[in-house]
Design goal:
Strand content: under 5%
Order of helices and strands: HHHHHHHHH
Low-confidence stretches: none
Shape: elongated
Oligomer: single chain
Number of helices: 9
Distance between the termini: 62 Å
C-alpha cells in the first residue's frame, strides 16, 4: 500500500467531495481518482477497500469540522452565560456554512451507516464520543445547564444545520422577523439554556 501522506490526504479530501456530491453509492475509487485529479488506480493503492476509505473520511471530517482552538480560547474569555453558549452555536453554524461539503458528507456517512451495520457501530461510537466530549466540555467550562441542555442543544443545532444546508427554504420566513440561521440560533439557545439565577 502506498504511503505518501500528502497524496493520501488529498485522496481522502477528494473522497469527501465525492461523498457530498454523489452520495455513498457514487463513492468509488475511480470517482475519488477523478476528483483528486490523479491517474485511475491511484486510490486503490492507498486504501484496502471502500470501508477503509470511509473510515479515513470519517476521521478527516472530524478534523475539518472541529472548532478552531484559537477561536475557542478567545470565546472562553467571556462570562459563562447564555451569551457564551450563543457564541459557541454561532461558531458551529459558521463552520457548517464554511465547509458545507464537509457537513453534507457527514450526513451521507449517517445515511450509509443505516445500511451497513459495521459502519453503524463504528460511526455511532464516534458520534457518541463527540456528544460526551461536548458534555464534559460544558461541565468543565462551567456553562449554564447540564448534560440535558447539551443533548437538546445538539439535537436542535443538528436539525438546524441539516435544514439550512439542504433545504434552506423550509425555514426561511417560518417565524416572522426571525432570520435563518442567525436569529434562529439565538432562539434555540434562549429556549434551551436555563436563564441566569437571580
Amino acid at each position: 500500500m502506498a504511503s505518501n501522506p500528502r497524496r493520501r490526504a488529498a485522496l481522502v479530501d477528494a473522497g469527501v467531495e465525492v461523498l457530498a456530491r454523489e452520495g455513498a453509492r457514487g463513492l468509488t475509487f475511480r470517482a475519488v481518482d477523478g476528483a483528486a485529479g490523479v491517474p485511475v488506480g491511484t486510490a486503490s493503492n492507498y486504501f484496502t477497500g471502500r470501508d477503509d476509505l470511509l473510515r479515513q473520511i470519517d476521521a478527516r471530517l472530524h478534523e475539518r469540522l472541529a472548532p478552531d482552538p484559537e477561536v475557542m480560547a478567545e470565546l472562553l474569555k467571556a462570562p459563562r452565560d447564555r451569551r457564551l453558549i450563543t457564541a459557541f452555536m454561532h461558531d458551529l453554524m459558521a463552520r457548517a456554512q464554511r465547509d458545507r461539503t464537509g457537513y453534507l458528507a457527514l450526513f451521507e456517512m449517517r445515511l450509509e451507516a443505516t445500511r451497513r451495520p459495521e459502519l453503524r457501530a463504528s460511526y455511532t461510537k464516534t458520534i457518541r464520543a463527540d456528544l460526551e466530549q461536548g458534555m464534559e466540555f460544558h461541565r468543565t467550562a462551567g456553562l449554564p445547564g447540564g448534560d440535558e441542555t447539551v443533548t437538546i442543544l445538539y439535537v436542535a443545532m443538528l436539525g438546524l444545520i441539516l435544514e439550512h444546508l439542504t433545504l434552506p427554504g423550509v425555514l426561511d420566513g417560518v417565524l416572522p422577523n426571525v432570520t435563518v440561521p442567525t436569529d434562529l440560533v439565538e432562539r434555540i439557545v434562549t429556549t434551551i439554556v436555563p436563564p441566569p439565577k437571580p
